[in-house]
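::Amino acid chain::
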Amino acid sequence: MKYSELEDGILQLIVDATEDSVRAFGEETVTRLVRPELLRGAAEDELTEEARAALTTACANVLTISAPELRDALATIYAGILIDDDLDTGVLTAITALAHWKSYLEQNRRGELYELAIRSVEDVDHEVSADLDDILATAEMAAEYERIRRLLAPGTT
């Protein structure tokens, strides 16, 4: 499967999914994308102490924090980024996931969950360097696609 086919397939799964499936998928995926080990690679000079604390707290409480609280945390994080580029990949993944989750909580737009799905695929790709012409060739990428399918279309394999 080519990468573009994977993207199309994920989009269709999100469009066709029930509200309960979409929510379960979003919760599991955002939790995966803000896991503590992603934050360990951050250099001290990337974020202010206040931003690092806001990021850690938001990630730890991602499923219980309200959209306004998450908006405030993201504002603190953005204001506390100390570098112009090359932010640690794990930190960038977590911040991006929080931003998409906040937008989903505020607007209930499935497009935000599509973005979370793509960030999750990219996270796996970062670990295994998947082939874009045969994106499911690695066991890790095939497992991630199956996780997405299982959550969005329960009963299919």
Notes: The CA atoms of residues 18 and 155 lie 13 Å apart.
